[in-house]
Amino acid sequence: MNKIGIYPGTFDPITIGHIDIIKSSLKIVNKLIIAVSNDYTKDYLFSSDDRVSIIKNSLFKDLKFTEKRIKVLSFSTLTTSLCKKYKATIIFRGLRAVSDFEYEFQLAGMNRQLNRNIETIFLMSDPDKQVISSRFVKEIAKLNGKIDNFVTKSVNKAIKEKYD
């Protein structure tokens, strides 16, 4: 059976914490769609097109993931609508801390109300990666701190270009 999952997020930028969730997701599904939110109400460092490109460079060039099992795209619909379009039955969500759980639990409940055929699976990255967030990575980079341990080479380069 061909299991398809979606990992939605802003990925502004993608971090090694996100990549840890991607690796775990690929153990569960045959095909993973990394869906980059194109929510116009948020203020992003990178455009959705840039984020898609940065993710592709990180996964396929830096880390040598296979493109056969991963699709990266941007979206501006309900996640459940995206699932229906791509016949995905699983939504993956990453949890870093207890503070993430309440929001994620409510979101999963709403998605379940919208489509009962879609399951949400919560995954945690390795403990040493759980404190990494896109927000902190941007903050560290903006203040000229070293972010090599938190992102891939492509992401590091893209962030440096933004702040230089």
What does this structure look like?
The chain has 164 residues and is an alpha/beta fold. The chain has one domain: 3-Layer(aba) Sandwich (Rossmann fold). The chain has 6 helices and 5 strands. Helix 2 runs antiparallel to helix 6 (153-163).
Task: Provide the fold topology.
Elements: E1 4-9, H1 16-25, E2 31-37, H2 48-62, E3 70-75, H3 79-86, E4 90-95, H4 98-114, E5 119-124, H5 134-142, H6 153-163
Parallel strand pairs: 1-2, 1-4, 2-3, 4-5
CATH architecture: 3-Layer(aba) Sandwich
Strand order of the largest sheet: 3-2-1-4-5
The CATH topology name reads Rossmann fold
- Estimate the mean pLDDT confidence: 93
CATH class: Alpha Beta
What percentage of amino acids are in beta strands? 15-25%
Largest sheet: 5 strands, parallel
Distance between the termini: 48 Å
**Considering the protein shown, what is the CATH homologous superfamily?**
HUPs
Domain unit count: 1
- What is the H/E order? EHEHEHEHEHH
Determine the fraction of residues in helical runs and give it as a percent range. 40-55%
According to DSSP, the number of beta strands is 5
Q: In terms of per-residue confidence, which ranges show pLDDT below 50 for 5 or more consecutive residues? A: none
Radius of gyration: 15 Å
> Structural class per helix/strand content?
alpha/beta
- Helix count? 6
- Describe the global form: globular
Summarize the structure.
The protein is α/β, with parallel strands linked by helices.
